[in-house]
Design brief:
The protein is an all-alpha fold. Helices cover 91% and strands 0% of the residues. The chain contains five helices and no strands. Helix 1 runs parallel beside helix 3, helix 2 runs antiparallel to helix 3 and helix 3 runs antiparallel to helix 5. The longest helix is centred in the last third of the chain and has 82 residues.
């Protein structure tokens, strides 16, 4: 939407002064708008395709209105061009673009919050799983350590018994 505002600013400056330099923001906005539309469609996703399409149609209508007024200024002069701006149709289109933009922004913000909450929930679940696995690992290591100690004691007892028997056999 800020690109359309830039385009509108350039158009107004031109219509007020007749200086082509004021059309630079308009030209830049017209050049950048296709890539901005692609980024918006990508960010919004398929679920919001209808709103993005509406904003695209409204943007096209706004650009056409701006172009008509610039062309009218060049062909017929300032008076007829300013009369086109004064009729209010361009404002209505911009108001519609703003409304659609706000609606899309609210949807995207809600989706972002929902995704953030889901991510936090999944992070908590992962932390719980890690804690459980850590506890199980400690229990497993303690059990293995106790089995090792038992085995060492059994071997020590067997070694002692063998020494005793050897001592008895030698005596």
């Amino acid at each position: 939407m800020s690109l359309l505002q830039d385009a509108e600013t350039g158009q107004r400056g031109y219509l007020l002064t007749g200086d082509e330099g004021y059309l630079e923001p308009y030209r830049n906005a017209v050049a950048r708008l296709p890539s901005e539309r692609r980024m918006l469609a990508s960010a919004a996703g398929p679920a919001d395709a209808a709103t993005v399409a509406l904003m695209s149609r409204l943007s096209d209508a706004k650009l056409a209105e701006l172009e008509r007024s610039i062309r009218t200024y060049r062909e017929k002069g300032a008076g007829p061009a300013r009369a086109m701006v004064a009729d209010g149709s361009g404002k209505l289109v911009m108001d519609s673009i703003r409304a659609a933009g706000r609606a899309l922004e609210q949807v995207l913000e809600s989706r972002y919050r929902s995704n953030a909450e889901l991510s936090q929930s999944q992070a908590r679940e992962a932390q719980g799983t890690i804690a459980l696995l850590s506890a199980l690992t400690i229990i497993l290591l303690a059990t293995a350590f106790m089995a090792l100690i038992r085995q060492v004691r059994v071997q020590a007892e067997a070694t002692r018994s063998l020494r005793e028997e050897r001592g008895q056999l030698e005596a």
